[in-house]
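To: structure subgroup
Subject: Chain for Friday's discussion

All,

I'm putting the inputs and outputs inline so they're searchable in the archive.
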Amino acid sequence: MTNYVLTSDIYKGYKHAGPKAKADINMFLKQAGWKILDLDLPIKRFPKLMYRIFKLPHLFKGKNAENIVFQYPMYTVFLTKSIIKEVRRQTNAKLIFVVHDYESIRKYKGDQTFFKNEVKIFNAVDCLIVHSEAMKKKLRAAGVARKMVVLGVFDYYNP
């Protein structure tokens, strides 16, 4: 059985620290023998729908996955939910989210619809890996019932 990391970087080519955390996780897990699935997710609505219809159904086909780490957020709720459905439909893998940002308290603060969707997303996976005890407490208070592991570090790789 194989372990996979799902990652997507909407900031490819930009010269800033935005993608550093995801790149660090990829580096560490790749060194541990995990396979990286770098998803080139579209941003616009119609291409997202086409991705959902034509690419996602084949993403896990024939892959004997034991664990799948999903680097959250991927900045598209529609495709995040679709990826969860495909993982559940096509594999028996444990789905683990590494939560880099809790969007409900950052980008979508005060948006109750987004907040409820995000809690549903988190409760649809097997385990969450979070940065801090404070993040874990906020997620618990929001209604996230899944197992959570506190990573306890923020800057993963600093040579």
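Points worth raising on Friday:
The longest helix spans residues 45-59.
The chain has a mean pLDDT of 87.

D.
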